[in-house]
Specification:
Blueprint lengths: L33 H6 L4 H9 L1 H4 L4 H12 L2 E4 L7 H12 L4 H7 L8 E4 L4 H7 L7 E4 L10 H13 L4 E5 L2 H5 L3 H15 L3 E5 L8 H13 L4 E3 L11 H18 L4 E3 L7 H14 L12 E3 L1 H15 L12
Parallel strand pairs: 1-2, 1-8, 2-3, 3-4, 4-5, 5-6, 6-7
Helix pairs in contact: 2-12, 4-13, 4-14, 5-7, 8-10, 10-11, 11-12, 12-13
GO molecular function: deoxyribose-phosphate aldolase activity
Enzyme class: lyase
Catalytic activity: 2-deoxy-D-ribose 5-phosphate = D-glyceraldehyde 3-phosphate + acetaldehyde
Length: 336
Amino acid sequence: MPRTHTEDPANLCTAPAALPQLAHPRNLGIPLDPGWVRRAAVNRSAAERRCATLPGRRSVKGSIQAAWLLKAVSLIDLTTLAGDDTPGRVRRLCAKARQPVRADLLDALGVSGLTTGAVCVYHEMIAPALDALAGSDIPVAAVSTGFPAGLTPFATRLAEIEASVAAGASEIDIVISRRHVLTGDWAALYDEVRAFRAAAGPAHLKTILATGELGTLTNVARASLVCMMAGADFIKTSTGKEPVNATLPVGLTMVRAIREYHAVTGHRVGFKPAGGISTAKDALVWLALIKDELGDRWLSPDLFRFGASSLLADIERQIEHHVTGAYSAAWRHPLG
């Protein structure tokens, strides 16, 4: 992506550099530290005040905004998780993942090789996704463990992970048992995620906290720490199926837990907000949060993803406006 050195990077006004896609060591996890978990606490009012400042303080325009939006595209887990999914729909989604923004718009911006971060599907759609993505470097992520509720038998959830890895998924998005958080049974949550990590083997494990069902930001912080201690490669806000999904106070809570965990252990853990992020403006605010709290290293697909589909359509419309000066109709940007 083009980069200018005339703006202030502290204000998110510099176009993001093309960060090298370095494979960092996986989070090995650590023994459960109940004292560290109990000490974690979040002041909701303070978190909300901090998040309220983000949209106004981190404003970008013109070519800088376009560059940040292209960065956002590279971080999307393009997702279809519907009961009426078909191989044809998945193939169309994968085609969009390979060419997420119209070629003429990318040519005008001098950008090539742009893809989304991954394609996320149910287990039954792994095979058509792999076929449609053959020859690309785009990974297939599969939701697992009784998604979205996570209430199937434990042995079934482990078998589901193993089956998806065997089918070729290189990333597994699992859901935790919310009851362990709500009852403060941190040992049970740790053991559960540790077992999921073992079942995933070489696949990267993204643990979905379903934060809208955890009650408090303190619970979100404690669950985040426990999942990271158990070896999660990513922590993710939501399934997208809860009444409340990704919110900025939840995101702030989770990324600060990631920052603390990295400071103590040296392990980097990724972050994935999912659900309710549907506009280019939303994406820019989330990128500002990550840049402020975790730094540029996390602005890379190996450490940050958006769980979204409708987001891409709005970003493409904004990029078209930047290039042509006009918006096209939303129906011209279908995903399925």
